[in-house]
């Protein structure tokens, strides 16, 4: 009661000040950013033909856990991805696992610019640049003549649910080395599950793609003393992702060292490393998630498998995992 009265008095005081002598900068709680994404999505839809619209927009279907997708339309065997409603998430090339939505090579130049504008408001500046680097590197593979569908034109955009400021909807964008799933609900947005990857790791020699996440990871593991590393080190074989596409809802034992034992500098490296994925999201929507990640550090675990050093200006080849409250990075 006292808090409400105090807030009311404060509002009254601010409103009574002369407008020419005081300016209050509005802090975005996510509403303004959500509106920008909503507007960018609708601008794109307004440029599409009816046929294109039907290929890009699908219903948002609430479901429990995602269901696995197997190679060759089988119901058993090797997992190729997973499906949630009509949306599909995978790290295999387009053509091996079909994406749901409209591929970039189906857009006109004007429509393509609207797609890029949507990505700009979805992502942080670093996130947008990383997405561009991944796609450009994939174009290098296409230019080399790989035997699978690759390149800029294969990256696919889909909406699940109509763009809305009051209802849940999702934007999915990706291709072989990129899987973006961004769910929107009012002023809130999350970006998960999320996949980033790259081949080649060095694009035309001049640009090392995914350099930051690689460098931060090796800096972190290199900062651990023998005792901490002994706890972090995974001694059994880790040959693939343990919680990748097709494994939604599965539980894994906690492995590694508790980040609560780290120094403040080491904990900051953990946050920076997680942000290489979670921080692809624009800074406004990422802010509350970042606060959650920091608040959960004492319940977060870091695990490592493989070499702990690498050559300068090269991407190293190792595996690491970060598991925390509502957090899994590997």
From TrEMBL:
Keyword field: Signal
InterPro entries: DUF3500 (IPR021889)
Pfam families named among the record's database cross-references: DUF3500
Signal peptide: 1-16
Record-given protein name: Putative secreted protein
């Amino acid at each position: 009661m006292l808090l409400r009265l105090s807030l009311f008095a404060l509002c009254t005081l601010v409103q009574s000040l002369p407008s020419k002598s005081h300016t209050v900068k509005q802090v975005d709680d996510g509403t303004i950013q959500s509106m920008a994404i909503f507007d960018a999505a609708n601008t794109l839809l307004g440029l599409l033909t009816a046929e294109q619209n039907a290929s890009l927009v699908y219903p948002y279907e609430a479901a429990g856990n995602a269901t696995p997708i197997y190679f060759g339309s089988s119901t058993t065997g090797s997992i190729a991805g997973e499906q949630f409603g009509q949306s599909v998430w995978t790290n295999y090339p387009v053509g091996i696992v079909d994406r749901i939505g409209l591929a970039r090579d189906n857009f006109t130049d004007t429509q393509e610019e609207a797609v890029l504008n949507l990505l700009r408001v979805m992502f942080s500046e670093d996130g947008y640049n990383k997405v561009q680097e991944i796609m450009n590197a994939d174009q290098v593979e296409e230019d080399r003549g790989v035997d699978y569908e690759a390149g800029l034109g294969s990256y696919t955009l889909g909406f699940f649910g109509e763009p809305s400021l009051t209802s849940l909807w999702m934007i999915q964008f990706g291709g072989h080395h990129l899987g973006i799933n961004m769910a929107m609900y009012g002023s809130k947005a999350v970006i998960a599950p999320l996949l980033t990857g790259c081949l080649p790791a060095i694009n035309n020699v001049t640009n090392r793609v995914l350099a930051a996440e690689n460098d931060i990871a090796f800096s972190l593991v290199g900062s651990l003393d023998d005792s901490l590393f002994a706890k972090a080190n995974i001694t059994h074989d880790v040959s693939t992702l343990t919680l990748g596409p097709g494994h939604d809802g599965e539980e894994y034992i906690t492995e590694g060292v508790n980040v609560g034992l780290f120094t403040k500098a080491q904990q900051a490296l953990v946050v920076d490393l997680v942000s290489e994925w979670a921080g692809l999201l624009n800074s406004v929507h990422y802010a509350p998630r970042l606060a959650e990640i920091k608040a959960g550090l004492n319940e977060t675990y870091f695990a490592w498998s493989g070499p702990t050093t690498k050559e300068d200006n090269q991407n190293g080849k190792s595996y690491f995992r970060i598991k925390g409250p509502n957090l899994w990075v590997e």
